[in-house]
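Folds abound. A case:
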Amino acid sequence: MHPGSVLSSLTALLWPSAKRWRLLLLTVLLALTPATIPAQQSHKDASTGLEPIRSYISAGWNTLSRSLSDCATFSDTKLTTAPQLYLPADFPMPESVKQLETRCRIQVRSLPPSASHLGASAAQSIDPPGLLYLENRYVVPGGRFNEMYGWDSYFIVVGLLRDGRLDLARDMVNNFLFEVEHYGAVLNANRTYYLTRSQPPFLTSMILGVYGAQKAAGHEDHKWLEKAYQLAVKDHSLWVVEPHLAGSTELSRYFDFGDGPAPESVKDETGHYREVVAYILAHPDVDQSLVVRKASGQTASSVAGSTYSLQVCDVARTTAKPDCTVASDVALSADFYKGDRSMRESGYDISFRFGPYGAGTHHFAPVCLNSLLYKSETDLEEISKILGHKEDAEQWQKRAEERKAAIQKYLWNSRRGLFVDYDFVHQAQSSYDYVTTFFPLWAGIATPEQAQALVKHLPTFEQPGGLVMSPHETGGQWDFPYAWAPDQLIADEGLRKYGFNKEADRVSYEFLSTVAENFRQDGTIREKYNAVTRSSETQVTAGYHMNIVGFGWTNGVFLELLHDLPAELVQKLSSEQGSSAAATH
């Protein structure tokens, strides 16, 4: 019975005796008060429990924004060289940019025509390396990542749009259009040493996101969309010609045009390539051709990086340094470095998904890349229809269907009920379970039966803190036990697209609560989380070892997952954070 009904009944019953009525009414009110006041207080706590993390994210868009008016934009902690700014070879130098030489103490240069676009023959030899010019503001991930990244930015743009920052989201998309127009494609990031590779293609998703937000705000812009469409077509062309083709599969692969060690790895990943050599030599089951052996003093062919000494030493029995004899010198093969660089184009660096340390990345047709390209082709079909390009729309539909058929042929494993990567060199499907198996749900490629089969594999990846990248613990940050924001969102939206809302709610809540709890403890949001311990503490041994604070895409994904969550679960999350915060004071 409602408290008001209780009071009405008691009042009617006790009215003849005013004294008794007042006494009993007071008793009833005292009995009811403890039940109502805590409920009101609890509701208040629940409504404010997420305010601190929301405020952090909102302020973070400005903290993580970069532009040419800020001298901190040019810093690159991944290298030791002095800051440089490079303009496109075909772009006149604005006077405001020229003034940066004095104001920010940097060198401003123009790219040579022979090194002006992605894949250009001389792009790898630009020295000293530097920042590539962009016209507008952009949001960086944070920490060592002080530039605008290709696939990070999609999840950042999603967050910006969810947070009402259409202006900044549009600036970022315009920067990508500038990259395509003047540097040949969307780059890994806007540094000269990234002129050898792109990143997972999300450009059309960003374009449609900004276009839709503008339209919803009453500013539908067909002229802007037309320009964006033409440049998106150009960017897409990178992936459908050699060397980005995966053999004869009619699918695509990741491929870096450069050779040798990745420049950004040399300083921040000290000793990484030496550790790779040691791992390969200690594991005879690994392809030993990845290491090139040579006699001491001889020059090795087909290598592009450092040489390491393989020694035979006495067993140390005292504190004295044991005697050693050099058996041979070894180096990583050129093919290893090609795989290593291509893994970095995939964004999943470092994982053992494509072999140890990603060495075979360029030998695979990946589920993620081809799902994204299918999505891009269906997006281009949609944009063509909006713009009235009927013939274009028909062509994009045809191309999307052809890719979908190839994905079903090569990447679906009906026996296991998973989408897997395909090794087109050895003509075999991968047995390495990876969370990108959910990308075909997000892209709308899977059949309802395939979606049902995929959901049965959630236990392979699900941990208390969300979905781990794989069940394989390799020391790489893109393997077990780590959960990353972008793959949480892809899986969440994919599951919801096929009606698995209960499962999406559960795994999203696991990740959201992990991020929120760690934020409450140290006031930061990180690039990744240990999904087993629900902690931001990490023990990465392959690649750079930090867990970067910021963090652009985690901020964006947090907002979007929170938006997708049912109201009662948002209330629960908010209440938990409010209660936990109160308990610490």
